[in-house]
Request: fold
Amino acid sequence: MTLAVATTDSHLNDSAGVITLDNLSVNFGGRPILKSLNGELRGRAIGLLGPNGAGKTTLIHTLLGFHPPASGTARIFGSDIRSDANQIKRLIGYMPERDSFITKMSCIHFVRFMAELSGLPSAAALERAHEALFFVGLGEARYRNVDTFSLGMKQLAKLAQAIVHGPKLIFLDEPTNGLDPPARQRMIKMIREIRDSGQANIVLSSHLLRDVEECCEEILILKEGRLVTYCNLEEERKANKKFLMLETRGDLHSFIEGVSRMGAECAVTSDHRLRIILQDGNEIRDLYRLAADSQVQIRRLAFKRDSLEDIFLKAMENGDVA
Amino acid sequence: MAVLERTYKRYEGTLSPEWSRFLIIPRHAVRNIFRSKLFTGFYALSFVWPLVCAILIYLHHNAEALAILRVNVVDVLPIDATFFQTFVAVQGTIGFFLAMLVGPQQVSRDLTNNALPLYLCRPFSRSEYVVGKMSIVIILLSTITWIPGLILFLLQSYLEGWTWFSANIPIASAIFLGSLVWIVLLALLTQTISAWVRWSLAARAAMIGLFLIPGVFATIVNEMIQTHWGNIISLNALIANVWAGLFGTFVRQTSQVQERRGGQIIREALMTEPPLWASWFMLFLICALCLWLLSRKVKAYEVVK
Reply:
């Protein structure tokens, strides 16, 4: 008794972004929670950052269709969350922040049940449930009751139910909550594996900057329901490849003139420290050659870029709409 | 995403039909329900009365057996609308206790364990969830009410002949409809109580209370203002009237009450049973109220003001 093919995504607009926010606002009891969010996200892994109460989870819940938008809308793979909610739900997996289980069920039974609810036929659901549990590392514990699981195992079971039906977009809400360092590393590794497989896009909501930095290419920073920063970490990393910090000894005059003649920008930050932004065509070896010609010793050379923490703190300080 | 490869892969296969997805819930739930020895025992006992009825029907048509038992055919119960109405009433009462065992934990467990977001983030709507949960009670109770009822009807038709069957078709529809109304009412009540009362013991008590308290209150109202309209709030009286209406045994009873003092009538009151449509209307109202209450609770996340 099987009907449609699961992944007939021909109706989806592949040229559209993964998530498009179009003036999206959400109110609870007349109080604005999300305020006119705009933007288009295209990354394989998108990070949602923000302090507690910023609206990260509300944004995910709105995209999942749990809360109706007060105004504006959002699109997932080009499908509108207002009019095509059911169509969208076929393509997404969701790992909630809080413990969410069906009690008195073995883990394999639970994950299989979730797969069946997503539309998989019974036999395929069982097969995929086994695969998903082996993938997340719960293969040996799959016949145990979920109620008996430790916190780390419960997180893995939640991830398994989110991926069992092979969704195209996976929402992970604080996936590393309550995990010890090795378990956190395993979780991050799995998220990166899913991302790198190219089979699914990921939206990762977390207040842990390191998690987002390790997994995501794009980040959205929310503050008090507003989008304060959008940042493409990949581009940021590429752009910052030519941003150098130099520690030197010797007379810098001729060296700085030489750097300027190369077309690079140079600034002296302290006595012997220089910040240089190289232009296309500039090579590091040119700097060493110039230093040798100018009788300047380069004691230390390091690539420098704004860390996610810098970006986050800047966003929190400024706090204006991006 | 093979077990050995351990890589993430999208699902490329076929999907089950959307209309049938609500049935996934009862399929998985029934497996858990029958793990309870108490429930299984009670469920097995609920087939005793249909068996007794089948024996009665058989005896009714077996003169030799009656002779062996030394029973006169006149003394044997007649197999008519009242016989089947009694069957539905007895099985309905047993069904009430079964629903009380099964129903109260269905929604409350999901609410306590935050499972609703897991259902509702999938292509599975709130109404499918409610229908799925209700169908646990509906399927279980169907197996002890209208299904054995119709089997008994067919047995009687087989033994009595085609003429009896064609003349008594309304009894068959009354068995089916009467049981179904009762089952749907029980399913809605158990799910609503389950959604609002998380502690299953309290939910069961509330279920009994729903049938007892309005009944007692109805009697008080009837006595105080000399009427039968108090029955309109008693679930037992409502369903009894609906069953009687379906089996064609409903009589709108009218009684006269006279209060005498010193041999003289000082007060006279005419007590009329509420009409049949009023019972149907009240049941409809109760079902609508249950659905509204369920819609308030069955949400992925509750927004707390």
